[in-house]
Amino acid sequence: MEEQVEINSLLLKANSGDLDAYNKIFPLVYNELRQIAHRIRFQFFGLDTLNTTAIVHEAYLKLIHSEADWRNKAHFSSVAAKAMRQLLLNAARSKKAEKRGGTYIKVSIDEWEDQISLSEECCNEILHLEDALGLLGQKNQEQMRLVECRFFANMSIEETAEALNLSTSTVKRHWNVAKSWLYSQIQQQKTA
Amino acid sequence: MEDYSWDELTELYNECLTLPITEQATFLLENTETKPALRKRLMEMLAQSNEAEDYFNNLKRDIAEGLETEVPDLAMPGEVINNYKIIKKIGVGGSSQVFAADRVDGQFDKRVAVKIFKKKDATSFSDKTENEKQFLASLNHPSIAQIFDGGTLDNGHPFIIMEFVEGETLKAYLDYKKPNQKDSLKMFSEIGAAVRAAHSNLILHLDIKPGNLIIEKDDRVKLLDFGIAQRLKETASIETVGKLTFNFAAPEQLAGRALSVQTDIYQLGLILYFLLSNGRILEGQKQVLSLLAKVDSEVIKSRELLAIVKKCLQQKPENRYQSVDQLLADIRNFQKKYPISTYSRSWYYRTQKYVQRNSIATLLLSLVFLSLIGGTIISLRQARIADAEKEKAEKAAEIATNTKNFIFELFEETNPSNTKGDTTSIYDFLDKSYKKINSYSGTPEVKAEMYSMIASSYRALGNFDIAEEAITKAQTIFDSLEIYGSESYVALLDNLALFHRDNGNYDKASSLYNKLFRVASLIDIPKDSIYASYLKHYSYVQKTRGLLDSAYQIITKTAELEKRILPDTLNMLYAETLYIKGSIEKDLENYVAALKTLNIALNIVVAVEGEYHPGTQAILNSISLVAQRNKDYDKAQEIFYRQIKIIKKVYGLSHTTLAHAYNNHSVFLTRINSFDSSLFYSKKANAIYKKALKDRPNSDYGLSLKNYGSALSQINQLDSAEHYLNKGVEMLQEVNGPKKYIIDGFFKLGYNYQKKLDTAKAISYFEKAITLKRELNENTDEYERMRDNLKSK
Lengths: 192, 793
Known about the structure:
The structure holds 2 protein chains of 2 kinds. Chain A is 80% helix and 0% strand. By secondary structure, chain A is mostly helical. The longest helix of chain A is centred in the middle third of the chain and has 31 residues, at 70-100. The N and C termini of chain A lie far apart (53 Å). The model of chain A is unreliable at 42-55, 64-68 and 101-112 (pLDDT under 50). By secondary structure, chain B is of the alpha+beta class. Chain B has 36 helices and 9 strands. In chain B, helix 26 packs antiparallel against helix 27 (591-609). The N and C termini of chain B lie far apart (72 Å). The interface between A and B is large, with 40 and 36 residues.
């Protein structure tokens, strides 16, 4: 029970942008990310069996060993989404560093990260997206988190709405803007 | 910098999305008046919203590809497979796991590799007949890892047993050894020899990639997995192919078309690139195409080697090397510094020169744009003339106006920008309308006006023959009425001048504009947007005559006038002016200014009409030409794709505008020495023209046929060249097409006959070219020299 309270409060803090809390919770969610990865892969390769929410909730339940209220489950989803963003960023950075022959020090939490084989073009795009997303975060935290859910965790509009405690119409509106703005920002970064 | 809040941006953007596309720009203008940065950003976002969607989908797909899910080990140490005992796992690939194994009975002291495929339902090696198995097993070559046997495990996974190769992958080898060009080529020849040996045993590889190339301790290469891919892929779904070797798949593999020796040659081309670049991979078709468009590459410094790589990477199998032998021969020639088969210096320079002489791309596309905008100008003029007539004789004028409006509506329907593709019906319709005018019994002035109008429609569609007939009829009527001082007459002069412009008779056009402005100042016609359009046309004629300073001066004046009289510079007429201004700046070689002007024009058109509009692609075409002058070929290529996307959406797949763009691109490709691709696009252009126009002759079609013939002549396919050149020139003559192209056609025919050693015919065509050139008062020295050279032989 102690543990559960601890995790829940960490999740809350992580969700409101507390970096410390996020770093503490990150290893806990990390193992479940491969399931999200699974799901992302399968969307494109035709074996859509589980939905993201189910995976994440299952992970969450494993984590705290008991049913929790929906709000905490939702928080877990959005932290998982952030973790996925972090994971892909790490993979992209280390691949770029490898290419340059540099000595980027990689803190790999487990070997799975090494198995991610992103193409160079894909790495470049992830790094561009990261820059643009950072800017977006400065302007509007909510939209940034929404991109993490919609894009990085591959959540549907409804799942995102639940995770961020927003209405589906707000999610749609934010997603429209964030998507277009990020793209135009990335184009600018590329030509700059 | 930023003059807005995020909430504002979010609100306005979503608001825009609820509006029809045509109203978005107006809405934004009204709501961002004091906020240029916000306006700019929102315009961009709106214009690119589809691209943004694609961008995220594609990125997600790429990420999905990279997220390899774990597969448990398919065999455990100690397990026995076909008399071989698994020792340990030694490798994991995209589609398989590889284990080291030893013979159980110890009969032979032989270690083997057992490769177990992850995908169960793939047709397995065991399905092969004994014959086939032996066939593969007989493939015994020092650079090929031998396959001993194969089958399916109890758990359903197919496997093969093959020679155990100790070494490292090509990628790892390149990383630390960094071989020089000489060693790389030596290694490539070894790989090529292995593939050739397999080909002579009728076995294709189809999955040649760095992961399948192992370098042994003595620096010898071994190629793995021969004969596997073909078998597997016959049943593999597209996603498996994508996952396995996406970057190394040939276009025909991605498209699921027939595979051949040329498929292996394509992959060898990628391997050659990989070796010469010390480990770089061309990722996907986009990068391959961009390499194909290059004359120089930073990665492969030698132009000859680049040409060899490009020949391997041709999109159409038949355009690649016909055999590995030919490819290896070129590599050998290069090593010995002999000329290689794909590349000849003199050929290259000749082509460069040819394109410099024939810069048709600018002119033709510009004309299409001008005639499209011309439609709106005519409509304005119509309205005003109608007003004037009412004052004169109210009743008669009313009838005239009605008739005119009626016909005008018909014309509007037939305007190419409104019919989205169905050119043949336009012709039928115009023909019908033309007959209707002949029997029209209203006032002569209206009749003359109608002739003038239909003439411009025929002109826009490239049928100069009927255009001339109609415009002559109009002029005859004006002459008989002796009303030289009217605005209608001024409009006719404009139309007549445009006719001569399109027909390549720019001096005549220019003198008509001189006359037009004289008459205009005499009767003091209002300096309105119609007047601005006359200035604009005049400027364009001066530009084409090479009088750039005069052209620039006129267009600057036009821009100033329009700024004064138009309610707003966010206007298509103003965009057109900037478009011409930018094109003139380009000719003045002021590329910085040109790009700036053209981009403003582009922004206006995109804001007013959206991305998918004829004007957008016309301006893009000019920007592409500037990029080509700046030697930014990637940019030019990129713009071409954007253009094609627009054209396909606006006009459809079978519209002549698409053919036009293909033809222009083909000229560009000739310029960068990419003849095979050039012919490819030229052929596409001709096919569209043929389908769209049926057998009706057309100036653009004629030109395209002529270009196709010229390119064929360049690569010495002389008989085909003769056929197409003749067809093109005949068609140009039939529609009374631009003289300069007919002249060029004669010249190319002459040169083609010269190559065919038919001196008499060659001389006769040079003479034809010279005669016609003299009619235009142009310098004939070069042609005469060529003719005299032949005569003296």
